């Protein structure tokens, strides 16, 4: 038999030969599996014409990504009909689409939004103020060419310059303060410093007798400031105290005063109203004031009285001519000292908290600019809203 029953186990035993059939079957099975896996992968990759994106790895956070490849943002609300006429917002008109690329990044596409229907559309233009990108460019519908320059007028649809060029504000009825920095244009360095350092909420008043007014106006408007034009009016001690050429005088004929007013108005554009430059005597004379104030109101402007004359008849005349007007509550820099001006600003805040609003006026001194810059930054943190002067006027059209 050739078998040694007494030999130790495992010794002198011939190696067992593997059956070739079993190996061959395993290789064939592995190959079939590989072919099946490859075919399934190709099928998955090319189904739906190869346009479907592969899913991101499970470890990648996609919670913020949209579930589809293209998402269109919802259209702005406010398209409800008013008296059967669709309503459109003046700033609307774009479709926004977000497209997810293969690597997971998002590409945003903007395209014009078509309007439904072919009839008229009511455009909601109730927002006050001008687009900041266009703030230095006058609205041609609110301008007329005259021998004295381009003067403001009320538009054919009733639109007023005081609304077009007003600085937008929140519309809430919290504590509001307007601060007007006057005398700009008289000092080049002072004007430049004010434009560079003061926040855009501060209203700027340019003196009609200043220099380079058109350039300064454009810089101020681009910076977001609402602006006024200061017109020289006769003070009590005239001519010892002379506000400058083309001062409006109580002794002048009405036509001459209107001519002087228009010459001052033609110096710049894009202002919301007129502010007095001196003028204690003129403001105390209703007969001299009435035709001037009527012309200002007819042109869609407001009038700001700086509040320095106790004998001013501005309120009486303005109400009789339906002129939008306001009075300053405080002259902030009668003493040109930073600490004193800061104390005046605190007093202005107390007036505003008591009455809901207040107006302060200062001149373009370095000390005034420094104090206003410091105080206004802190005031906003205390819940004070600093607004343009047009937001605080007594307006007969918007009582």
Principal-axis shape? globular
What is the CATH topology of the largest domain? TIM Barrel
- The figure for the number of domains is 2
Unreliable residue stretches: 1-20, 48-83, 85-94, 121-127
Total strands: 16
Fourth-tier CATH superfamily name of the largest domain: Glycoside hydrolase/deacetylase
Taking all residues together, what is the mean pLDDT? 80
- Sheet with the most strands? 9 strands, parallel
| The CATH C-level class name of the largest domain | Alpha Beta
Count helical runs.
10
Note the beta-strand portion: 15-25%
What is the succession of H and E elements? HEEEEEEEHEHEHEHEHHEHEEHEHE
Class per helix and strand makeup: alpha/beta
What is the radius of gyration computed over CA atoms, rounded to a whole number of angstroms? 38 Å
CATH architecture title of the largest domain: Alpha-Beta Barrel
Report how far the terminal alpha carbons are from each other: 127 Å
Characterize the structure shown:
- The protein has 2 domains: 70-123, no CATH class; 132-392, Alpha-Beta Barrel (TIM Barrel), CATH 3.20.20.370.
- The chain has helices spanning 20-46, 161-164, 188-197, 213-222, 254-265, 280-283, 286-298, 314-321, 338-355, 366-381; strands spanning 70-72, 87-88, 94-100, 106-112, 122-123, 143-146, 149-152, 176-184, 203-207, 227-233, 273-278, 302-305, 325-327, 330-331, 357-363, 385-386.
- 31% of the residues lie in helices and 19% in strands.
- The chain has 10 helices and 16 strands.
